[in-house]
Write a structure and sequence with these properties.
The complex is a heterodimer. Chain A is an all-alpha fold. Chain A contains nine helices and no strands. In chain B, α3 crosses α4. Classes of the chains: A mainly alpha, B alpha/beta. The structure holds adenosine-5'-triphosphate and magnesium ion.
Chain lengths: 246, 248
Protein backbone atom coordinates (compact mmCIF):
# COMPACT_ATOMS: atom_id res chain seq x y z
CA UNK A 1 0.00 0.00 0.00
CA UNK A 2 2.64 2.46 1.12
CA UNK A 3 4.94 1.31 -1.66
CA UNK A 4 2.24 1.82 -4.28
CA UNK A 5 1.53 5.26 -2.85
CA UNK A 6 5.18 6.23 -3.26
CA UNK A 7 5.45 4.75 -6.75
CA UNK A 8 2.34 6.65 -7.82
CA UNK A 9 3.48 9.91 -6.32
CA UNK A 10 6.98 9.44 -7.74
CA UNK A 11 5.55 8.97 -11.23
CA UNK A 12 3.39 12.09 -10.90
CA UNK A 13 6.45 13.95 -9.66
CA UNK A 14 8.43 12.77 -12.69
CA UNK A 15 5.68 13.96 -15.01
CA UNK A 16 6.12 17.45 -13.59
CA UNK A 17 9.91 17.18 -13.65
CA UNK A 18 9.83 16.53 -17.39
CA UNK A 19 7.85 19.66 -18.18
CA UNK A 20 9.49 21.82 -20.83
CA UNK A 21 11.86 24.36 -19.24
CA UNK A 22 10.26 27.81 -19.16
CA UNK A 23 13.38 29.78 -20.02
CA UNK A 24 16.15 28.01 -21.91
CA UNK A 25 18.96 30.38 -20.92
CA UNK A 26 18.31 29.87 -17.21
CA UNK A 27 17.87 26.15 -17.76
CA UNK A 28 21.21 25.81 -19.55
CA UNK A 29 22.90 27.82 -16.85
CA UNK A 30 21.49 25.48 -14.23
CA UNK A 31 22.62 22.42 -16.19
CA UNK A 32 26.20 23.70 -16.31
CA UNK A 33 26.05 24.55 -12.64
CA UNK A 34 24.88 21.02 -11.79
CA UNK A 35 27.48 19.44 -14.06
CA UNK A 36 30.08 21.16 -11.97
CA UNK A 37 28.44 20.33 -8.65
CA UNK A 38 27.44 16.73 -9.29
CA UNK A 39 30.04 15.66 -11.83
CA UNK A 40 33.25 17.65 -11.62
CA UNK A 41 33.16 17.81 -7.83
CA UNK A 42 32.93 14.00 -7.74
CA UNK A 43 36.10 13.38 -9.72
CA UNK A 44 38.30 13.28 -6.63
CA UNK A 45 36.27 10.71 -4.73
CA UNK A 46 35.96 8.51 -7.83
CA UNK A 47 39.71 8.75 -8.34
CA UNK A 48 40.46 7.73 -4.77
CA UNK A 49 38.12 4.76 -4.55
CA UNK A 50 39.02 3.54 -8.05
CA UNK A 51 42.76 3.52 -7.55
CA UNK A 52 42.43 1.59 -4.30
CA UNK A 53 39.82 -0.79 -5.65
CA UNK A 54 41.95 -1.59 -8.67
CA UNK A 55 44.95 -2.18 -6.44
CA UNK A 56 43.15 -4.39 -3.96
CA UNK A 57 41.43 -6.54 -6.58
CA UNK A 58 44.79 -7.10 -8.22
CA UNK A 59 46.53 -8.08 -4.99
CA UNK A 60 43.68 -10.33 -3.84
CA UNK A 61 43.58 -12.17 -7.15
CA UNK A 62 47.36 -12.44 -7.23
CA UNK A 63 47.70 -13.89 -3.74
CA UNK A 64 44.80 -16.28 -4.23
CA UNK A 65 46.12 -17.94 -7.35
CA UNK A 66 49.74 -18.05 -6.19
CA UNK A 67 49.71 -21.71 -5.24
CA UNK A 68 47.71 -23.09 -8.13
CA UNK A 69 48.56 -23.80 -11.75
CA UNK A 70 46.29 -20.98 -13.04
CA UNK A 71 48.10 -18.75 -15.56
CA UNK A 72 49.39 -15.52 -14.01
CA UNK A 73 47.95 -13.26 -16.70
CA UNK A 74 44.53 -13.95 -15.15
CA UNK A 75 45.36 -11.32 -12.53
CA UNK A 76 45.32 -8.54 -15.13
CA UNK A 77 42.27 -9.98 -16.81
CA UNK A 78 40.44 -10.30 -13.47
CA UNK A 79 41.19 -6.74 -12.50
CA UNK A 80 40.09 -5.44 -15.88
CA UNK A 81 36.83 -7.36 -15.98
CA UNK A 82 35.93 -6.66 -12.34
CA UNK A 83 36.43 -2.95 -12.88
CA UNK A 84 34.67 -2.91 -16.25
CA UNK A 85 31.73 -5.08 -15.28
CA UNK A 86 30.94 -4.10 -11.76
CA UNK A 87 33.15 -1.78 -9.77
CA UNK A 88 33.33 1.26 -12.03
CA UNK A 89 29.58 1.24 -12.53
CA UNK A 90 27.79 -0.26 -9.54
CA UNK A 91 30.22 0.51 -6.72
CA UNK A 92 30.95 3.98 -8.05
CA UNK A 93 27.20 4.55 -8.33
CA UNK A 94 26.70 3.45 -4.72
CA UNK A 95 29.37 5.87 -3.57
CA UNK A 96 27.82 8.64 -5.66
CA UNK A 97 24.38 7.80 -4.24
CA UNK A 98 25.84 8.62 -0.85
CA UNK A 99 27.65 11.76 -1.87
CA UNK A 100 25.48 13.26 -4.59
CA UNK A 101 22.19 11.84 -3.28
CA UNK A 102 22.64 13.36 0.17
CA UNK A 103 23.66 16.64 -1.42
CA UNK A 104 20.56 16.79 -3.64
CA UNK A 105 18.22 15.80 -0.80
CA UNK A 106 19.57 18.33 1.66
CA UNK A 107 19.50 21.11 -0.91
CA UNK A 108 15.91 20.49 -2.03
CA UNK A 109 14.72 19.61 1.49
CA UNK A 110 16.08 22.84 2.91
CA UNK A 111 14.43 24.81 0.11
CA UNK A 112 11.18 23.05 0.90
CA UNK A 113 11.05 23.71 4.64
CA UNK A 114 12.10 27.34 4.18
CA UNK A 115 9.23 27.97 1.75
CA UNK A 116 11.64 28.58 -1.13
CA UNK A 117 9.87 25.99 -3.26
CA UNK A 118 6.54 27.65 -2.53
CA UNK A 119 8.16 30.94 -3.47
CA UNK A 120 9.15 29.44 -6.84
CA UNK A 121 5.66 28.07 -7.39
CA UNK A 122 4.20 31.42 -6.42
CA UNK A 123 6.28 33.20 -9.03
CA UNK A 124 4.81 30.84 -11.60
CA UNK A 125 7.93 28.70 -11.92
CA UNK A 126 7.45 24.95 -12.38
CA UNK A 127 9.59 24.17 -9.37
CA UNK A 128 9.89 20.41 -9.99
CA UNK A 129 11.31 20.84 -13.45
CA UNK A 130 13.32 23.93 -12.54
CA UNK A 131 15.09 22.17 -9.67
CA UNK A 132 15.34 18.54 -10.70
CA UNK A 133 15.62 18.37 -14.50
CA UNK A 134 19.06 20.04 -14.62
CA UNK A 135 20.29 17.53 -12.03
CA UNK A 136 19.02 14.58 -14.06
CA UNK A 137 20.68 15.85 -17.22
CA UNK A 138 23.92 16.64 -15.42
CA UNK A 139 24.04 13.21 -13.75
CA UNK A 140 23.15 11.29 -16.90
CA UNK A 141 25.84 13.16 -18.85
CA UNK A 142 28.65 13.10 -16.32
CA UNK A 143 28.30 9.78 -14.46
CA UNK A 144 29.16 7.68 -17.56
CA UNK A 145 32.29 9.79 -17.96
CA UNK A 146 33.11 9.19 -14.31
CA UNK A 147 32.66 5.47 -14.93
CA UNK A 148 35.08 5.52 -17.86
CA UNK A 149 37.49 7.50 -15.72
CA UNK A 150 37.11 4.97 -12.90
CA UNK A 151 37.88 2.07 -15.27
CA UNK A 152 41.08 3.73 -16.37
CA UNK A 153 42.13 4.68 -12.85
CA UNK A 154 41.26 1.24 -11.48
CA UNK A 155 43.51 -0.45 -14.02
CA UNK A 156 46.20 2.07 -13.20
CA UNK A 157 45.79 1.22 -9.50
CA UNK A 158 46.24 -2.46 -10.32
CA UNK A 159 49.27 -1.71 -12.39
CA UNK A 160 50.85 0.35 -9.60
CA UNK A 161 50.12 -2.40 -7.08
CA UNK A 162 51.89 -4.96 -9.26
CA UNK A 163 54.71 -2.55 -10.01
CA UNK A 164 55.45 -1.91 -6.34
CA UNK A 165 54.81 -5.39 -4.91
CA UNK A 166 55.79 -7.65 -7.78
CA UNK A 167 52.87 -9.88 -6.82
CA UNK A 168 52.97 -11.13 -10.41
CA UNK A 169 55.41 -10.28 -13.18
CA UNK A 170 54.36 -6.97 -14.71
CA UNK A 171 54.43 -8.40 -18.24
CA UNK A 172 51.95 -11.10 -17.31
CA UNK A 173 49.71 -8.48 -15.75
CA UNK A 174 49.77 -6.29 -18.85
CA UNK A 175 49.22 -9.32 -21.09
CA UNK A 176 46.16 -10.14 -18.97
CA UNK A 177 44.84 -6.62 -19.39
CA UNK A 178 44.75 -7.16 -23.17
CA UNK A 179 43.63 -10.77 -23.11
CA UNK A 180 40.26 -11.61 -24.65
CA UNK A 181 38.87 -8.12 -24.34
CA UNK A 182 35.10 -7.82 -24.79
CA UNK A 183 34.17 -4.22 -25.72
CA UNK A 184 30.50 -4.87 -24.90
CA UNK A 185 31.42 -4.91 -21.20
CA UNK A 186 32.03 -1.18 -21.44
CA UNK A 187 28.72 -0.59 -23.20
CA UNK A 188 26.98 -2.71 -20.58
CA UNK A 189 28.54 -0.70 -17.76
CA UNK A 190 27.65 2.60 -19.37
CA UNK A 191 24.02 1.55 -19.87
CA UNK A 192 23.87 0.58 -16.21
CA UNK A 193 25.35 3.80 -14.99
CA UNK A 194 22.94 5.94 -17.02
CA UNK A 195 20.07 4.24 -15.23
CA UNK A 196 21.86 4.56 -11.87
CA UNK A 197 22.42 8.27 -12.57
CA UNK A 198 18.71 8.71 -13.13
CA UNK A 199 17.98 6.95 -9.84
CA UNK A 200 20.52 9.02 -7.92
CA UNK A 201 19.20 12.31 -9.30
CA UNK A 202 15.52 11.59 -8.78
CA UNK A 203 14.95 9.40 -5.70
CA UNK A 204 16.59 11.71 -3.12
CA UNK A 205 14.99 14.71 -4.87
CA UNK A 206 11.59 13.04 -4.60
CA UNK A 207 11.97 12.32 -0.88
CA UNK A 208 13.17 15.85 -0.19
CA UNK A 209 10.52 17.54 -2.30
CA UNK A 210 7.72 16.18 -0.12
CA UNK A 211 9.43 16.73 3.22
CA UNK A 212 7.49 18.57 5.92
CA UNK A 213 8.75 19.94 9.19
CA UNK A 214 12.25 21.06 10.03
CA UNK A 215 15.93 20.25 9.77
CA UNK A 216 15.41 16.87 11.44
CA UNK A 217 12.97 15.81 8.72
CA UNK A 218 15.36 17.00 6.02
CA UNK A 219 17.99 14.73 7.55
CA UNK A 220 15.57 11.82 7.54
CA UNK A 221 14.57 12.49 3.93
CA UNK A 222 18.22 12.59 2.99
CA UNK A 223 18.87 9.22 4.64
CA UNK A 224 15.80 7.73 2.96
CA UNK A 225 16.88 9.09 -0.38
CA UNK A 226 20.33 7.53 -0.09
CA UNK A 227 19.07 4.18 1.23
CA UNK A 228 16.31 3.78 -1.37
CA UNK A 229 18.50 4.85 -4.26
CA UNK A 230 21.17 2.35 -3.12
CA UNK A 231 18.63 -0.47 -2.94
CA UNK A 232 17.24 0.45 -6.35
CA UNK A 233 20.74 0.53 -7.81
CA UNK A 234 21.41 -2.99 -6.53
CA UNK A 235 18.03 -4.18 -7.78
CA UNK A 236 18.43 -2.71 -11.27
CA UNK A 237 21.98 -4.04 -11.38
CA UNK A 238 20.56 -7.56 -11.26
CA UNK A 239 17.75 -6.83 -13.71
CA UNK A 240 19.95 -5.13 -16.32
CA UNK A 241 22.62 -7.78 -15.99
CA UNK A 242 20.07 -10.50 -16.66
CA UNK A 243 18.74 -8.60 -19.68
CA UNK A 244 22.07 -7.63 -21.21
CA UNK A 245 24.45 -10.47 -20.39
CA UNK A 246 22.28 -13.61 -20.41
CA UNK B 1 -9.84 43.54 -6.23
CA UNK B 2 -9.52 40.08 -4.81
CA UNK B 3 -12.68 38.39 -3.63
CA UNK B 4 -12.81 35.21 -1.58
CA UNK B 5 -16.30 33.73 -1.45
CA UNK B 6 -17.31 31.26 1.23
CA UNK B 7 -14.01 29.43 1.37
CA UNK B 8 -13.45 26.47 3.68
CA UNK B 9 -10.29 24.49 4.25
CA UNK B 10 -9.52 21.56 6.52
CA UNK B 11 -6.53 19.34 7.08
CA UNK B 12 -8.03 15.92 7.88
CA UNK B 13 -10.14 16.64 10.99
CA UNK B 14 -8.69 20.08 11.60
CA UNK B 15 -11.21 22.58 10.19
CA UNK B 16 -8.98 25.61 9.86
CA UNK B 17 -11.15 27.88 7.69
CA UNK B 18 -14.91 27.82 7.89
CA UNK B 19 -16.94 29.66 5.26
CA UNK B 20 -14.84 32.81 5.06
CA UNK B 21 -15.71 35.61 2.64
CA UNK B 22 -13.38 38.51 2.17
CA UNK B 23 -12.90 41.40 -0.23
CA UNK B 24 -9.44 42.91 -0.61
CA UNK B 25 -9.38 46.37 -2.15
CA UNK B 26 -7.07 47.96 -4.67
CA UNK B 27 -4.62 50.66 -3.59
CA UNK B 28 -5.30 49.80 0.03
CA UNK B 29 -3.77 47.57 2.66
CA UNK B 30 -5.96 44.64 3.62
CA UNK B 31 -4.93 43.14 6.94
CA UNK B 32 -5.74 39.68 8.21
CA UNK B 33 -5.26 39.47 11.97
CA UNK B 34 -5.75 36.73 14.51
CA UNK B 35 -3.87 34.77 17.12
CA UNK B 36 -1.10 32.37 16.31
CA UNK B 37 -2.59 29.20 14.83
CA UNK B 38 -5.88 30.88 13.89
CA UNK B 39 -5.30 30.13 10.22
CA UNK B 40 -3.93 33.38 8.81
CA UNK B 41 -1.23 31.68 6.80
CA UNK B 42 -3.64 29.00 5.62
CA UNK B 43 -6.09 31.71 4.50
CA UNK B 44 -3.37 33.58 2.62
CA UNK B 45 -2.08 30.43 0.95
CA UNK B 46 -5.62 29.41 0.08
CA UNK B 47 -6.23 32.73 -1.65
CA UNK B 48 -2.94 32.22 -3.48
CA UNK B 49 -3.89 28.71 -4.52
CA UNK B 50 -0.94 27.14 -2.71
CA UNK B 51 -3.50 25.25 -0.64
CA UNK B 52 -6.34 23.57 -2.48
CA UNK B 53 -9.55 24.82 -0.84
CA UNK B 54 -12.38 22.41 -0.04
CA UNK B 55 -15.19 24.84 -0.85
CA UNK B 56 -15.64 28.34 -2.17
CA UNK B 57 -14.44 30.62 -4.92
CA UNK B 58 -11.52 33.01 -5.35
CA UNK B 59 -11.65 35.85 -7.82
CA UNK B 60 -8.76 38.03 -9.00
CA UNK B 61 -10.06 41.14 -10.79
CA UNK B 62 -12.53 39.73 -13.27
CA UNK B 63 -11.07 36.22 -13.35
CA UNK B 64 -12.29 33.30 -11.31
CA UNK B 65 -9.01 31.88 -10.05
CA UNK B 66 -10.53 28.68 -8.72
CA UNK B 67 -11.83 27.77 -12.21
CA UNK B 68 -8.47 28.24 -13.93
CA UNK B 69 -6.21 25.50 -15.23
CA UNK B 70 -2.55 25.26 -14.26
CA UNK B 71 -1.34 27.44 -17.16
CA UNK B 72 -3.79 30.24 -16.46
CA UNK B 73 -2.92 30.19 -12.78
CA UNK B 74 0.78 30.45 -13.66
CA UNK B 75 -0.06 33.53 -15.72
CA UNK B 76 -1.89 35.23 -12.82
CA UNK B 77 0.96 34.35 -10.49
CA UNK B 78 3.34 36.47 -12.51
CA UNK B 79 1.15 39.41 -11.45
CA UNK B 80 1.45 38.45 -7.78
CA UNK B 81 4.30 39.35 -5.47
CA UNK B 82 4.58 37.40 -2.26
CA UNK B 83 6.73 37.89 0.82
CA UNK B 84 6.80 34.73 2.92
CA UNK B 85 6.84 34.55 6.71
CA UNK B 86 10.50 33.53 6.68
CA UNK B 87 11.50 35.57 3.64
CA UNK B 88 12.05 32.48 1.47
CA UNK B 89 15.09 33.97 -0.24
CA UNK B 90 17.16 31.50 -2.23
CA UNK B 91 20.10 30.64 0.06
CA UNK B 92 22.49 29.77 -2.72
CA UNK B 93 21.95 33.01 -4.62
CA UNK B 94 23.17 36.50 -3.78
CA UNK B 95 20.83 39.38 -3.00
CA UNK B 96 21.14 40.64 -6.57
CA UNK B 97 20.54 37.20 -8.08
CA UNK B 98 17.49 36.73 -5.85
CA UNK B 99 15.89 39.92 -7.10
CA UNK B 100 16.79 39.58 -10.77
CA UNK B 101 15.55 35.97 -10.92
CA UNK B 102 11.85 36.72 -11.64
CA UNK B 103 12.95 39.15 -14.37
CA UNK B 104 15.24 36.60 -16.01
CA UNK B 105 12.50 34.03 -15.80
CA UNK B 106 9.53 36.02 -17.04
CA UNK B 107 10.43 39.40 -18.53
CA UNK B 108 11.59 40.18 -22.03
CA UNK B 109 13.86 42.96 -20.80
CA UNK B 110 17.41 43.39 -21.99
CA UNK B 111 20.26 42.79 -19.57
CA UNK B 112 20.70 46.52 -18.96
CA UNK B 113 17.00 47.07 -18.35
CA UNK B 114 16.96 44.19 -15.88
CA UNK B 115 19.92 45.61 -13.98
CA UNK B 116 18.29 49.02 -13.86
CA UNK B 117 15.06 47.56 -12.61
CA UNK B 118 16.85 45.63 -9.83
CA UNK B 119 18.75 48.81 -8.92
CA UNK B 120 15.47 50.71 -8.77
CA UNK B 121 13.86 48.11 -6.50
CA UNK B 122 16.86 47.94 -4.17
CA UNK B 123 16.84 51.73 -4.01
CA UNK B 124 13.09 51.67 -3.32
CA UNK B 125 13.50 49.40 -0.26
CA UNK B 126 16.51 51.40 0.86
CA UNK B 127 19.20 48.77 0.49
CA UNK B 128 22.73 49.70 -0.50
CA UNK B 129 25.96 47.78 -1.02
CA UNK B 130 24.48 44.35 -0.40
CA UNK B 131 24.30 43.09 -4.02
CA UNK B 132 26.88 40.37 -3.68
CA UNK B 133 26.05 39.20 -0.18
CA UNK B 134 24.18 35.97 0.48
CA UNK B 135 20.94 36.00 2.51
CA UNK B 136 22.72 34.42 5.47
CA UNK B 137 25.13 37.37 5.52
CA UNK B 138 22.54 40.11 6.04
CA UNK B 139 20.24 40.95 8.97
CA UNK B 140 16.63 39.82 9.31
CA UNK B 141 15.30 43.26 8.50
CA UNK B 142 17.45 43.44 5.38
CA UNK B 143 16.28 39.97 4.34
CA UNK B 144 12.69 41.17 4.59
CA UNK B 145 13.53 44.14 2.40
CA UNK B 146 15.24 41.93 -0.17
CA UNK B 147 12.16 39.72 -0.17
CA UNK B 148 10.00 42.81 -0.72
CA UNK B 149 12.24 44.00 -3.55
CA UNK B 150 11.96 40.57 -5.17
CA UNK B 151 8.18 40.64 -4.74
CA UNK B 152 7.76 43.99 -6.51
CA UNK B 153 10.36 43.55 -9.24
CA UNK B 154 7.84 42.36 -11.84
CA UNK B 155 5.47 45.26 -11.10
CA UNK B 156 2.76 43.10 -9.56
CA UNK B 157 -0.92 43.96 -9.35
CA UNK B 158 -1.27 41.97 -6.15
CA UNK B 159 1.05 41.95 -3.15
CA UNK B 160 0.94 39.44 -0.30
CA UNK B 161 2.82 39.61 2.97
CA UNK B 162 2.86 36.91 5.62
CA UNK B 163 3.95 38.47 8.93
CA UNK B 164 6.17 41.08 7.28
CA UNK B 165 7.62 42.32 10.55
CA UNK B 166 7.80 39.25 12.73
CA UNK B 167 11.19 39.06 14.37
CA UNK B 168 11.96 42.73 13.76
CA UNK B 169 12.48 45.46 16.34
CA UNK B 170 9.65 48.05 16.56
CA UNK B 171 11.60 50.71 14.69
CA UNK B 172 12.51 48.48 11.76
CA UNK B 173 8.97 47.10 11.80
CA UNK B 174 7.55 50.59 11.29
CA UNK B 175 9.96 51.18 8.42
CA UNK B 176 8.73 47.99 6.75
CA UNK B 177 5.08 48.90 7.44
CA UNK B 178 5.51 52.31 5.88
CA UNK B 179 7.32 50.81 2.93
CA UNK B 180 4.41 48.43 2.35
CA UNK B 181 1.94 51.31 2.56
CA UNK B 182 3.98 53.42 0.12
CA UNK B 183 4.36 50.58 -2.36
CA UNK B 184 0.63 49.92 -2.20
CA UNK B 185 -0.14 53.53 -3.10
CA UNK B 186 2.71 53.97 -5.63
CA UNK B 187 2.01 50.78 -7.57
CA UNK B 188 -1.75 50.81 -6.84
CA UNK B 189 -1.68 47.17 -5.75
CA UNK B 190 -4.17 45.03 -3.91
CA UNK B 191 -2.10 44.39 -0.80
CA UNK B 192 -2.94 41.58 1.61
CA UNK B 193 -1.04 41.39 4.89
CA UNK B 194 -1.09 38.77 7.62
CA UNK B 195 -0.08 40.12 10.97
CA UNK B 196 -0.52 39.84 14.69
CA UNK B 197 1.38 43.04 15.29
CA UNK B 198 -0.93 45.70 16.78
CA UNK B 199 1.47 48.44 15.72
CA UNK B 200 0.92 47.51 12.08
CA UNK B 201 -2.80 47.44 12.65
CA UNK B 202 -2.77 50.96 14.08
CA UNK B 203 -0.29 52.17 11.48
CA UNK B 204 -1.50 50.80 8.16
CA UNK B 205 -4.85 49.06 8.77
CA UNK B 206 -7.00 50.37 5.89
CA UNK B 207 -9.15 47.27 6.08
CA UNK B 208 -8.89 44.66 8.80
CA UNK B 209 -10.36 41.17 8.99
CA UNK B 210 -10.15 39.42 12.34
CA UNK B 211 -10.02 35.64 12.06
CA UNK B 212 -11.31 33.71 15.04
CA UNK B 213 -12.47 30.12 15.31
CA UNK B 214 -11.94 29.61 11.58
CA UNK B 215 -14.34 32.44 10.75
CA UNK B 216 -14.19 36.08 9.80
CA UNK B 217 -15.22 37.30 13.23
CA UNK B 218 -14.98 41.02 12.63
CA UNK B 219 -14.24 43.40 9.75
CA UNK B 220 -13.45 47.11 9.90
CA UNK B 221 -10.62 49.65 9.79
CA UNK B 222 -7.96 50.96 12.16
CA UNK B 223 -10.24 53.60 13.72
CA UNK B 224 -13.11 51.20 14.27
CA UNK B 225 -10.95 48.51 15.82
CA UNK B 226 -10.09 50.74 18.77
CA UNK B 227 -13.73 51.23 19.73
CA UNK B 228 -15.25 47.87 19.03
CA UNK B 229 -17.32 46.04 21.60
CA UNK B 230 -16.65 42.64 20.04
CA UNK B 231 -15.39 40.63 23.00
CA UNK B 232 -12.99 38.24 21.25
CA UNK B 233 -11.50 41.05 19.20
CA UNK B 234 -11.08 43.19 22.30
CA UNK B 235 -9.33 40.31 24.05
CA UNK B 236 -6.98 40.08 21.11
CA UNK B 237 -6.34 43.78 20.54
CA UNK B 238 -6.02 44.71 24.17
CA UNK B 239 -4.12 41.65 25.30
CA UNK B 240 -1.12 43.71 26.39
CA UNK B 241 -0.98 46.19 29.23
CA UNK B 242 0.42 48.78 26.87
CA UNK B 243 -2.66 48.64 24.65
CA UNK B 244 -5.01 48.71 27.65
CA UNK B 245 -3.26 51.78 29.01
CA UNK B 246 -3.43 53.39 25.59
CA UNK B 247 -7.17 52.85 25.46
CA UNK B 248 -7.63 54.65 28.76
N1 LIG C 1 0.29 22.06 5.62
C1 LIG C 1 -0.48 21.85 6.70
N2 LIG C 1 -0.91 20.59 6.99
C2 LIG C 1 -1.71 20.37 8.06
N3 LIG C 1 -2.10 21.32 8.93
C3 LIG C 1 -1.72 22.58 8.71
C4 LIG C 1 -0.88 22.91 7.59
N4 LIG C 1 -0.65 24.24 7.61
C5 LIG C 1 -1.30 24.71 8.70
N5 LIG C 1 -1.95 23.73 9.36
C6 LIG C 1 -2.77 23.90 10.56
O1 LIG C 1 -3.64 24.99 10.37
C7 LIG C 1 -3.79 25.74 11.56
C8 LIG C 1 -3.53 27.21 11.27
O2 LIG C 1 -2.16 27.40 10.96
P1 LIG C 1 -1.58 28.75 10.36
O3 LIG C 1 -0.18 28.50 10.00
O4 LIG C 1 -2.49 29.27 9.32
O5 LIG C 1 -1.64 29.72 11.62
P2 LIG C 1 -1.26 31.26 11.66
O6 LIG C 1 -2.51 31.99 12.01
O7 LIG C 1 -0.58 31.66 10.42
O8 LIG C 1 -0.27 31.30 12.89
P3 LIG C 1 1.08 32.17 13.09
O9 LIG C 1 0.62 33.52 13.51
O10 LIG C 1 1.77 31.45 14.19
O11 LIG C 1 1.84 32.15 11.81
C9 LIG C 1 -2.86 25.12 12.58
O12 LIG C 1 -3.63 24.34 13.45
C10 LIG C 1 -1.93 24.25 11.76
O13 LIG C 1 -1.58 23.12 12.51
MG1 LIG D 1 1.39 32.21 9.90
Amino acid sequence: MNTFYHIGRYLLFMKKVFKRPQKSSIFLNNVFFEIEKLGINSIMIVLIISVFMGAVITLQTAYNIELSFVPLYLVGLGTRDSMFLEFSSTIVALILAGKVGANIASEIGTMKIHEQIEALNMMGVNSESHLVLPKIIAAVLTFPLLTLFSMFIGILGGYLAVYFTNAVPIDDFVYGLHYYFIPFYITYSLIKVVIFAFIIATIPAYHAYYVQGGALEVGKASTKGVVYSSILILFFNVVITQILLS
Amino acid sequence: MIIAKNISKSFDDNHVLNDISLTCKKGETNLIIGESGSGKTVLLKSILGIHQIDKGQIIYGDDVFTDMNHKEKQKIRQEIGMVFQGGALFDSSTVFENIIFPLQMFSKMSKVEMHNRVRFCLERVNLHNVDDLYPSEISGGMQKRVAIARAVVLNPKYLFFDEPNSGLDPKTAIVIDNLIKELTIDFNTVTVINTHDMNSVAEIGDNIAFIYNGQKWWYGNKEEIMHTDNKELNDFVFATKLMRDLKK
